[in-house]
Amino acid sequence: MIYTALLSIAIFQGIILGLVILKSSLFNSNSNKYLACLLFTISIKLLNHVFDIEGAFVRYPLLHIADNIEWVFLIPAFLFLFIKNRTDHAGKGKPKNYLFFIPFAYSAVLNIINDLDHVAGIYSFSESGIMIIQILGLVQLFLAVTFIPFLPIYSYFMIRHLKDSQEKKWILTLLTIVSLLLFVWLITALAGLFFNYDISSTMSALALFATFIIHWTAYKGIYKYKLAKNKDAVYNFLNNDSVISYPSLQIVQDSTPQEYKESITADNLYFQKLELLCKDQHIYTDSTLNREKVAEKLGISAGYLSQIVNIITGDNFAHYINQYRVEAVKEMISDPEYDNYNLLTMGLESGFTSKTTFYKAFKKVTGQTPNEYKNTIK
């Protein structure tokens, strides 16, 4: 009874935590959505385990179809894609994301076709059909012993791209404990398959360990602000801005709770990182730069990025970036090295896309046109 209660609590927490990550602008990003899916997958595995303990599969045999799907194929895929996007390691020549779900899709289709015979009794396989299913089952086994260990191992090499040492430590720990769960599960499943061992007790222990992963992710990833590093904002979100109360937190004036606004200050770590990207890496010189690109670099949603910039600077994101571009042009005008550059070339070098946007932004920031400014300092 206590065991199933612990599993049920973890299932509920995993689903709620996944929804929080997906729905809240504080945590939502392309990388974190894969973490949310990872939590959903672990919760599904635990739910099937609880159904098995409670005898639900005996009372409702068709549930076996969902249970026999190898959801475990999704765990390394979601974990890998989370790390891949977190490290900004998704570039040209990299495999498309959907390719990492092929083993799961193959396994799911094979098991469903097989269960329509064994569980649903819709049809019966002939002897040749059974032989084909067995051969396809060997392919599934091969995918399990290669795909499941490969992605976590490869993920260790990708973590080196992380610059933030605290973030690297947290993600490395997450990768280690999930990899340990996968490796022990795989070894146990193979032992049961080839040696007919009773693996029920080991699988029960693994299920309990999976509950720890969910609880640990909730504590370290949310409360200890590793998914969103603004500690005060996370605290206020968890205590005041639940996913039910504010399902779509927007940057509309006066629509954001006052406590949430007050939690975003100039020492916000995301804003500090944004400042470093502009001052040290000069990301503003990229003429295709937009909110979504910067938000992905920071590991947050575009909406939360807008909130940070708007609340701290009082300006929108575009004006914030244009200020850096204008300052870059002003430095070029003052530097003799750029005497051979005309003003439009300087603007384009600084990230502006056209003469019109360049002159308009320069006038807005300095109160002068580029020509007027140049004449005042020469």
- Round the mean pLDDT to the nearest integer and report it: 83
| Number of contiguous helices | 18
Shape from CA axes?
elongated
Largest sheet: none
Q: What CATH architecture of the largest domain do you see?
A: Up-down Bundle
What share of the residues does DSSP label as strand, in percent? under 5%
Kindly identify the CATH topology of the largest domain.
Rhopdopsin 7-helix transmembrane proteins
Give me the secondary-structure category. mainly alpha
The span between the termini is 83 Å
How many domains? The number is 2
Helix content: over 70%
Helices and strands, in N-to-C order? HHHHHHHHHHHHHHHHHH
Name of the top-level CATH class of the largest domain: Mainly Alpha
Give me the count of strands: 0
GO molecular function, one term: DNA-binding transcription factor activity
Protein name: AraC family transcriptional regulator
Transmembrane segments: 6-22, 34-51, 63-83, 95-113, 133-159, 171-195, 201-219
InterPro entries: Homeodomain-like_sf, HTH_AraC, HTH_AraC-typ_CS
